Automatic annotation (TrEMBL):
The keyword tRNA-binding is annotated on this UniProt entry: no
Subunit structure: Oligomer (believed to be a pentamer but probably hexamer).
Origin organism lineage: Eukaryota, Viridiplantae, Streptophyta, Embryophyta, Tracheophyta
Name by which UniProt lists this protein: Cupin type-1 domain-containing protein
Signal peptide limits: 1-22
GO process annotations (BP): plasmodesmata-mediated intercellular transport; regulation of root development
Amino acid sequence: MARLHLWIAAAVLALAVPSLAGDPDMLQDICVADTASPIKLNGFPCKANVTAEDFFFAGLKKPGNTSNPAGSLVTAANVQSFPGVNTLGVSMARIDYAPGGQNPPHTHPRATEIVFVLEGVLEVGFITTANKLFTKTITMGEVFVFPRGLVHFQQNRGHGPAAVIAAFNSQLQGTQAIATTLFAASPPVPSDVLAKAFRVEPDQIDAVKAKFK
Ligand SMILES: *[C@@H]1O[C@H](CO)[C@@H](O)[C@H](O)[C@H]1NC(C)=O
Ligand SMILES: *[C@@H]1O[C@H](CO)[C@@H](O)[C@H](O)[C@H]1NC(C)=O
């Protein structure tokens, strides 16, 4: 009987641990990233001379420049721009949207994302692996969450600019934008592969690829 309980406990643990998995747990109080280190490991080594400045980042104060084809800009406060978050399992970003702008469909392989609207009106949504879309229009002061790894987007539906603050449970969430990953990869994904996948002709794929040059 005791043995059965042990097996049940082990099974519950085995199920629970992967579902809690995010960035690895900390092994020390602080480990500010030495992003210039030649040492390659899973994350960044800790730098030796740490000050309060290492835990400070002012880069999200100002709106990003949204004059680009998407009409949006993500300003990241992740370990690459903000080394103080190394090993802490968190990061942030600010996303600005021009009128009509969008943050195109993309995924974050390593993080759930939660956004807080600073200004404007946004249609936001994510799609599950069962291809179900969950979508909502959100406005100033409201929050929406995009579960880890799922394809999601934000579209400015207001008449003026919009902006959100995003938080991630990873020091480096990783971003894979669906359109650029497929149509602007280097070397390119063969057009016949994409034509078959999208059920169109290769020249239609080439026309889309040309837009990403
Ligand atoms: C540590 O960093 C501070 C700020 O960058 C610098 O002023 C100081 O000289 C450094 N100390 C050492 C021992 O490198
Ligand atoms: C915004 O980006 C565009 C395109 O790169 C550039 O022409 C423009 O000068 C930038 N605006 C500001 C305020 O930096």
